[in-house]
C-alpha cells in the first residue's frame, strides 16, 4: 500500500472513532445558513466529525455506493477546503 493511502486510511479510522464534541461558531453571516458538506446524489450516512484544532473540522461519512468513505475539511471560516462533495478515502467497490 502506498504511504499516502495508508495515511488516508489512518485518518479515516481516526475520524470514525467517537470523540468529544467540537463546537464551531461559523458561519458568522446569518444570511449564509448551513454549510453544505456534501450535496451529491444519493444518501450519505454514518456522519462523524472531529476538530482540526484550528477552529475548523474534519467531517467523514459513508456514501451509498459500496459504502465508500468520504472526508471534507471545513476551515475556521466555515468554508469547505477540499473538492466538492469531499474526498473519497476508502473506496470499497461493489454496490
Question: How would you describe this protein?
Answer:
The chain is 15% helix and 26% strand. It has a four-stranded antiparallel β-sheet with strand order 1-2-3-4. The protein has one helix and four strands. The longest helix has 14 residues. The protein has one domain. It is an alpha+beta fold and 95 residues long. The protein is globular, with a radius of gyration of 14 Å.
Write the layout of secondary structure elements.
Layout: H1 3-16, E1 44-51, E2 57-63, E3 69-74, E4 87-90
Antiparallel strand pairs: 1-2, 2-3, 3-4
Structure, briefly:
This protein has 95 residues and is α+β, with helices and mostly antiparallel strands. It is 15% helix and 26% strand.
Profile the largest sheet.
4 strands, antiparallel
Which H/E pattern describes the elements?
HEEEE
Q: How far apart lie the N and C ends? A: 23 Å
**How does the helix and strand content classify structurally?**
alpha+beta
What is the 3D form?
globular
Helix content: 10-25%
Strand order of the largest sheet: 1-2-3-4
Mean of the pLDDT scores?
A: 74
The rounded Rg comes to 14 Å
Instruction: Please report the number of helical segments.
Output: 1
Outline the low-pLDDT stretches: none
How many discrete structural domains? Answer: 1
Beta fraction: 25-35%
Q: How many beta-strand runs? A: 4
Features:
alpha+beta; single chain; 95 residues; 4 strands
Amino acid at each position: 500500500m502506498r504511504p499516502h493511502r495508508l495515511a488516508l486510511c489512518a485518518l479515516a479510522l481516526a475520524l470514525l472513532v467517537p470523540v468529544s464534541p467540537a463546537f464551531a461558531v461559523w458561519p458568522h453571516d446569518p444570511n449564509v445558513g448551513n454549510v453544505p458538506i456534501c450535496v451529491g446524489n444519493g444518501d450519505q450516512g454514518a456522519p462523524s466529525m472531529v476538530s482540526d484544532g484550528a477552529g475548523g473540522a474534519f467531517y467523514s461519512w459513508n456514501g451509498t455506493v459500496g459504502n465508500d468513505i468520504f472526508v471534507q475539511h471545513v476551515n475556521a471560516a466555515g468554508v469547505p477546503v477540499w473538492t466538492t462533495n469531499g474526498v473519497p478515502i476508502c473506496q470499497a467497490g461493489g454496490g
